[in-house]
Amino acid sequence: MKKLLFSSTALMLALSVFAQQRPQTPPQTPGTGAPQMPNMGNLPNMPTAPRQGPRAFKDVITAKAISKTGLFTVHKVEDKYYFEIADSILGREILSVVRFTKVPAGAGYGGAIANQQTITFEKGPSNNVFLRTVTLVNQAEGNQDIFKAVTNSNLNAIAAAFPIAAFGKDSTSVVIDVSDFFKGDNQAVSINPRFKRTYSLSALTQDRSYINKISTYPINTEIVSTKTYASSPAGGGISIPGLPSSGASIAAANDAGAVTMEVNTSLLLLPKVPMQRRIADKRVGYFTDNFVRFSDAQQKVEEVDFAVRWRLEPKEGEWEKWRRGELVEPKKQIIYYVDPATPKQWRSHLIAGINDWQAAFEKAGFKNAIVGKEWPENDTTMSLEDARFSVVRYLASDIANASGPNVHDPRSGEIIESHIQWYHNVMKLVHDWYMLQAGPNDPGARGMKYDDQLMGDLIRFVSSHEVGHTLGLRHNMGSSSQTPVEKLRDKQWVEANGHTASIMDYARFNYVAQPEDNISRKGLYPRIGDYDKWAMKWGYGYIPGNTEEETKMNSNKMVTAALKENPRHWFGTYESGNRVDPRSQSEDLSDNSVKASEYGVMNLKRVMKGLPEWTKEEGDQYENLATMYGQTLGQFNRYIGHVSTNIGGVYETFKTVEQNEAVYEIVPKTRQKEAVGFINKNVFETPTWLVDRAMWNKFNNPISADPIMGLQERTLNSIVSTDRLGRLQLSAERFGLDKAYTAMELLNDVQGTVFNELSSKKAIDTYKRMLQRTYVDRLTSILNPSAPAGGGITISFGGPASAGIDAKKSDVTAIVRAQLVGLRSQLNSAAATTADKMSKIHLADLAERIKVALDPK
């Protein structure tokens, strides 16, 4: 076997929102909770007691010792803990995963990961054992000359040193005292600095921190400790996904001047031989890890990105059957346990969501590859914090969400285990979504509390989504775009195929279906679809090749063929940073977001009529009505966003050089004009169906901001922006005026609706006056920005474009100036002829604003 040099650590959390981050470890600030030792740096050398060398094993591990064997043999001698580390374990890479097990109110939730690092133990000089933190950044094979250079540039830090207390009975192990190390606050096995900053934690208070217990198992050792930190009220802190970020919740955590937490540190032995990596392909959405590879034959360094996935292999003797495409049993089944804290009525639904992936794994050649089980509560040999077990942790949280992180080997991407975080209040999220999107089609959705079967179904789909993350899958926000919009109203088709091709999409429920379509829940719910099954085949199925490079080449051919065979295998680039492709959006449906949103609005109008009755509960003081009206506005706003993305939109479809096809294309001009037409009709012409003053009087103070005005203003500012106008002009220059929708066309189309009273001579109502002022102010702010814009137009070749458009250095300023000049003339003419007094002074005011903007001096 070739020797490899690895040097990095990866902290990977896949959230139902959820990006990959690497932990940062800035210098620690000394706290105030414990007395500080004086600085001895400038004092003369002082005598120190000679350090005692290793003693006889029996003198350290006495007859009083309680010993347990495992990864490390753990000896407890009175109040001290010792690790006996076999020589075969020294130098092996170990994953240190720190989780909260118990926390104060307002400071997170039990089960959440607090830190993750790779460490090794090694013998050092002077009878020491060193603990090093390993960072995987660069890699080279041991038979390469450049291996020496890589070695010299990647020295791993020594995080701790332990005097050898004794050698093992047979001299093939060392014994070290780890009591103070795990009672203390050592970065490699403790809470990440980000969490400490969030809750203003300073020094660890030694007299209130201790080890609860240490358990050891064949490949892992688990340390449960209680840590108390001095704390002062947070000044805003840092927002961390899944945790409270400000206000009363943080104050509750530290209003005693101290914060006590119980944490579990898992020390998990990584495989001696890393799993074979599967090189990532941008056309299949897996989480990835990476490092830089060096070799003698290179003329440039190579960044290696590889997929994060479980080690799923056939049983012994079945490899050839698997390679031939026959179904086989896995050597080791993927098992997820459901937390015993989960209410009993939801456990079977969570398990069903896990087991739904069995059919997808069959596409990869494995039967019974994954299974969900209830936690065996009477088995005292199992612990929820044990790193060998994957668990759906049920958290007592008001966060309306769930997340699916995983812990993986940074050398190969092999997933070791996962703790899905299931927040109790996720039921509110799915309730509100389902009422808004399915209420017109499903009478069961028309109430504030669903029956257990319906809520269980909704829990099941979220369970499947989060499990998908823990199997390595990223969100595929483009999947729903592969469904023709009219198929969503085709009862037979949609009930057979589902409304989106991927459970990993944010395509909650089929809001396009109309009541007259008579579509059942089977055609309203999301499910594991064509893309998910294909992604499992790519990630876990057999790809020919004796080397990593051969497998990569065959993978490329396999992906290209799969996309040609079935467009529903497409992976959208939303999470790669491209947010201007209307096919790849969060919460949208179908291949035509304009038409889909028209159907969505038709259903929302039905919801609005039903809200007073659907939200009625005895004793409720219109809180339900206020909440669901706000959710209705939010859903309508999403439709507006889906449509708006078409305007100045760019399709991004990854290709290979063998295909010799364009990666980037603009959204057709006709579709962009349709999108502007939708915005004009449904937003800039006041959506009176949302203006229900009788309803507002039950929960909305009349001196509060008008919600519809706010929606109109936000939409106009988004549509008429420097960035969008600049993108339109760039597209016109690249693709030509016959194909591109230009900035001038956009402004004329929007202005024609916003100012249609100028030609009709009608009085201008409150909503339109606000909208017209917003339009004029928006154009004048582009013409005379309050602060200098960025450094011109920036395009990142090989990736998504970064708008960064400076209006003064592009055609945008000239276009806007011409628009304002023409509009001012129209305003002056209309002001002179209108009979309505409010309209007259309003138009005169706008004309004066434009005059000042055109000549600010």
Short note summarizing the structure:
By secondary structure, the protein is α+β, with helices and mostly antiparallel strands. 33% of the residues lie in helices and 18% in strands.
Question: How would you explain this protein's 3D organization?
Answer:
- There is one protein chain.
- This protein is of the alpha+beta class and 857 residues long.
- Among the domains are: 4-26 and 59-269, no CATH class; 309-614, Collagenase (Catalytic Domain), CATH 3.40.390.
- The chain is built from 24 helices and 26 strands.
- The strands form five sheets. Strands 2, 3, 4, 5, 6, 7, 9, 10, 11, 12, 13 and 14 form a twelve-stranded antiparallel sheet that branches.
- Strand 12 and strand 13 (220-231) form a beta hairpin.
- Helix 18 (707-719) runs parallel beside helix 22 and helix 22 (766-783) runs antiparallel to helix 23 (812-833).
- The radius of gyration is 31 Å and the shape is elongated.
- Residues 1-46, 235-250 and 788-803 have low confidence and may be disordered.
Q: What brief labels describe this structure?
A:
single chain; 857 residues; alpha+beta; Collagenase (Catalytic Domain); 12-stranded antiparallel beta sheet; 5-stranded mixed beta sheet; 26 strands; elongated; disordered N terminus
